[in-house]
Amino acid sequence: MGSDRLLTITDLRAGWQRPVIGPLSLALERGEVVGLWGANGSGKSTLLAAVADGARIFAGRIERAPGLTLAVQPQAPVRLPRLPVTGRELLRAAGADAHGLPDRLVSALDRRIDRFSGGQYQLLCVWAALRGNADLVLLDEPTNNLDPAHEALLADMLSRDAADRGVLVVSHERPFLERTCGRILEVDR
Amino acid sequence: METLLDPLFRIPLAAGLLLALVLPLLGAALMLRDEWLAALGLAHMAAAGALAGLAAGAPAVAGGLAAALGGGAAKGLLKVRGNIAYAFMILGGWSALLLIAANTGVGDALGRALIEGQLYFAGPVDLAAALLLALVAAAALPRLLPRLLRARLFPQHETANRLPAWRWHLGFDLLAAAGIAAATATLGLMGAFALVLVPAWCAFRLAPGWRWALLLAALTGAGAYLAAFALALRLDQPFAPVLVAILLVAAAATPLSGLRR
């Protein structure tokens, strides 16, 4: 594995009770934003889960760079109906800083997260994943709940300090991936 | 105030106050993990263990600790999360408690004492247990709570980074079990349960953030405890029911919707 290679996936077949994706190969370097695009049920999220040790590997292998740290942002971030945690405390829990956070979120940072709008919360969680200390960030449908203005902020977040990490983005929104990713891998069963 | 400072009651007062400060913090973490039923499950295990210990000639707090720690360790090692494990502990502890009470020399009276609490009879052993618990909690919670918070908000983080998360989850399970066992032996089964549940419940609705929630929970627990201690003595009432009643009043005074946006 090269010095900037974060992840190498070789002939992977992964799933839960049975394989739902693959065989698939992929390499990801530091500084890259790679999009995974495909129809619903094509196994995009399963691929992310396999990289994060969540799904079962039936064949092939996933090699991580030694000491690789990961941040995972699932399709639906955990959101408890009542939780006395502020946005700032959520960032601290994720090991992320608030420096450079979009103004829309800065003004809400000291509010409880159970009082954030869906879009604000989604964006804050993506920021937490991107601005933590992870080498590789896995984002699953990060545009969920986002209006066009928030989506533009998300695109800006992805481009900021991009050289420090690698990002694997799953989305069914092809235009968003084309705008934010260096390359796009089409996933099909 | 005179009642609170009476030398006769200093040991019980101090032992209970330490527990009343620590239990709400454990309660906040249990509520964070959606495991608030833990208090009742572990308290039942502790009560049954305490009674079994007494029947065998050991101090109540020792038997209670052993049983609750056993329950907490089994839950942690079996990786059971959520309230279902504690529901089975309630049933098992309740059954064992009543069967031990009915079939040993310690009898119904001691079983009732564990249910109602025997705070005013707390001695140096109970105070030492409470003090040890408070010291361990003061050392461990600042390390455990941020990890538990991260695990709750970002559940894939530990698995994805291949972290030895079992250490801190089991560590917290054991700390919660020890705290509830010590509290059950002194404050009674329902008193311990109420101190874990109600202050955290109030704090989750009212606090503007996590640190405030912990502070508010501890202050609510300590305040309710001191009020119950004085009131139960003055009115010659059993302690635990008075404590539970005061905590329920505090809960009723908490707006159900919490702070508005």
Please identify, by name, the CATH architecture of the domain at 31-42 and 69-186 in chain A: 3-Layer(aba) Sandwich
CATH topology of the domain at 31-42 and 69-186 in chain A: Rossmann fold
For the sheet with most strands of chain A, the description reads: 5 strands, parallel
Give a count of the beta strands of chain A, DSSP E runs of length 2 or more.
8
What shape does the CA trace of chain A take? Answer: globular
Q: Which residues of chain A sit in consecutive blocks of at least 5 with pLDDT less than 50?
A: none
Q: Assign the structural class of chain A, choosing from mainly alpha, mainly beta, alpha/beta, alpha+beta, or little secondary structure.
A: alpha/beta
Q: If you compute it from the alpha carbons, what radius of gyration of chain A comes out, rounded to the nearest whole angstrom?
A: 16 Å
Main β-sheet description of chain B: none
The level of helicity of chain B is: over 70%
Order of helices and strands of chain B: HHHHHHHHHHHH
Number of strands of chain B: 0
Helix content of chain A: 25-40%
Work out the largest interface and the residue count of each chain: A-B, 29 and 29 residues
Query: What series of H and E elements makes up the topology of chain A?
Result: EEEHEEHHHEHEHE
Q: Oligomeric form of this entry?
A: heterodimer
- Looking at the overall shape, the CATH architecture of chain B is Orthogonal Bundle
Beta-strand residue fraction of chain B? under 5%
